[in-house]
Design brief:
21 helices, 70% helix, elongated
Amino acid sequence: MFRYSLIISLSLFSFQSFSYQSIFDRLQSECDNGNADSCYELADLYIPERKKNENPLVPELFKKACDLEHARACGSLGQAYLWGLGIDADRAQSVVYFQIACDKNDWLGCSDLGYAYFAGWGVAKDKEKESQYYKKSHKLKENECEQGDAHACYSLANNFLHSRHVGTDPEKSKTLYQRSEQIFISECAQKKILSCKYLADNYLQGNQFSKNLTKSVKYYSKACELGDTNSCEQVITAYARGNGVEIDRDKIHFYRSKVISIYETDCNNKIAQSCIDLAKIHAKGSNTFENGTKAAVKFFNRACVLGKADSCSKLASAYQHGSPLDGYDLYGKINSLPSLKQNIYLALDLHEKACDLGNKRSCKYGKDLKPIVSLDTACGDMNFNACVQLGDKYNKRDARVKDRNRALQYYETA
């Protein structure tokens, strides 16, 4: 229930332009001027696809939209409190916002509130209230489905298939799924991204709509063009494996470029996970990029500055050992990338930053590296005893920094 509701609550809007940066700018301006819908939509853009949100801007924007009487945003804020998404988890507070959303007649908020009373999340378990709010949600869904809300129709179809609160009716469920399919098709044509994704997912998996891989690629392509990276990657997979389409390297290249364009915009808007994804793609050295190592370092460093401890630690290790950065490809040709030039001073700085951000591995490596950096500085100042000590450290059989070539260099310097 919550997994399904969170997906709906975060993405009920449409992109009207292929300029992703202009979308951010427009929504930010409108939100600043008190437009609740724009605050809600902007929050969605700050949530990395397929990733757990850690951006504190997201709950702040949901709160602003909720205060501006946006019912669905209140429920989304409840979800943020429930799961600790960009804010400290607080189940009691999540129920407060589910209640606000439900009181404003948001069917999803009522559904979440019913589940809270069922699971005892933030409130005592109460079967009577559970049933009360589920039934209210069902009634609201019926009204909104009649008015053409595809998500309400789809959820209503699920109710008639599984819910013990309203009674099952498989035939009615089937009719509602068909109705939601037609509305989703119409909404996708109006550039509503989540509607395109729902169609693609259902055609791919054959859950409620008839399985059709060709249609799945068609609608994933539309969602990709509207800025959804997960959909782009689904299209890349299809063209790489021939799932519903012919294998086509040119299409792979085209959609890979789309992914990178979206990640770059998100990264520029301080979405750290997008910087990481971009860095990993560059780190693999796809032949469509120039100087992949330099770009990978740039984006890992940007994620580090944005507070991603693992990115700081990853860069630190690469500088410490003079090793390549790891990454992944998007079904493109992979070339080997050179290792980073060893730099123990940068490595120490990055380990210390990662440690400050809570990375225990970097705390340990930074502690081991600090005396080596001090000795290296002394060796550079012609303290030959320090050079010998460094040579010994790099030459020890059980040393973390074992490197016989470097040991030889220090011995030669001494």
